[in-house]
Amino acid sequence: MAVEEPPVRRATRTTADDDAPPPRGSLGVAHIVFFVVAASAPLTVAAGGIPQSLAVTGTTGIPLVYLLLAAMLVVFSAGYAAMSRRITGAGAFYAYVSHGLGRVPGVGAAFVALVAYNAMQVGIYGLFGFTTADFLDAKFGWDIPWWVVVFVGIGLVGILGYLRIDLNARVLAVLLVVETVTVVVFDFSSFTSAPDGISFDPFTWDALTAGSTGAAFCFVMASFMGFESAALYGEECKDPKRTIARSTYIAVLVIGVLYAITAWAMMTGAGTDKAVAAAQENGPNLVFVLGEDQIGSGFSDTAQVFLITSLFAALLSFHNAVARYFFSLGREQVLPRALGRTHGRHDSPYVGSLAQTALAFAVVAVFASLGKDPMATLFNWLTNLGALGVILLLVLTSLAVLAYFRRNGRAVGESSWNRLVAPVIAAVALGFVFVLAVRKFGVLLGVDSGSSLRWILPALVIGAGVVGSAYGAWLRTARPDVYARIGRGPQS
Fold this sequence. Notes:
Keywords: Membrane, Transmembrane, Transmembrane helix. InterPro entries: AA-permease/SLC12A_dom (IPR004841), APC_superfamily (IPR050367). Its main location: membrane. By secondary structure, the chain is mostly helical. The chain has one domain: Amino acid/polyamine transporter I. It is 72% helix and 0% strand.
């Protein structure tokens, strides 16, 4: 894929000047879709997300859940896209909530976003370290601790995050195409070799309501993580008023349809009535076991390599998202001003990138020093925590869209669907999903009802919002100049 190469400037910006221009606009719809879909990691979902949702929830309607959530997020995207045509900033949720609900809730949303995206990104390192170390041991006999692999990965992601966005787009494009082709090959082989024939039962009401339906919605929601991140690159788009909306719609539809088909194919390949048992027995290896039976050992080995690159792509995409939140908050001096610096040559939010790299290193070091299992704790705890945070942000953003357009009257070019009907439906539907997520969080973590973790981890998300809002209220009285900048982006 050809990517436009902007001219390189020789001067390096080393201060967070309020009037400093944002990163250059060089990204189109295709670039943004690559970032968004790469964050959802198709092969990672096929190997981890789908088998895990089947095994834990016992719900055979997982393919239907993907379609229902995709439809829900398309509705959400109507109001989200309308906001993106009026507000362009690297803060995304933070900026939208600030403009819609006010600066104090906006800072609360920013803190929730920082917790959610950092948790998701660092959590994925657990799966990356476990998978890569296991592969190296099985294929080459290299007994390398998982945390050593993770530290190498953190270094590579940090380097790419420091460099300009064009390089990252190329890397993600290659990795995404490779893993998507792998998933499509698996889907085709599963349908053609179906031991019990192809059944449409996974799309029925009975299948949807079997098992723990609420937990199933929560699991599947995690697969959509990152779909909303198109707005994070608003200042780097060639035409943000069109690019963000189109990228978001395309990404939601691609993710929803692809994963619904893949879940259906996996169940078909295992036998619809046997799929839950197969997922419980094989876990993340189910896609490789089925692939080896249907295609051969060569596919299984290749798919495992592509799973590692899939995880790397997701790590890189979430790293970029976190760096841009740091950049936005630093530029407006809500967080230390240094985080708002951009590199003069690469145009990357390099200080925010370095901060995220250091944070990931520190969290992984703590888990490693305590001897924690990278899958059962680092991956499982933090990715579910991240998903819960994003669900809350979706609800807040839907309410912000309603409030914004109510204050600004009948916005030119925006239908009542975009500014009223869709946000109401999205707020109610996603609010219901959030309540289910909190109630079923013990199922998500695989702990019993008496475990304190089922409340401690959700409290981190809600607590971040409370602390952020309190900090925003403090800024209103103690630092009114900073308070006035909140959510206002490059114009602040």
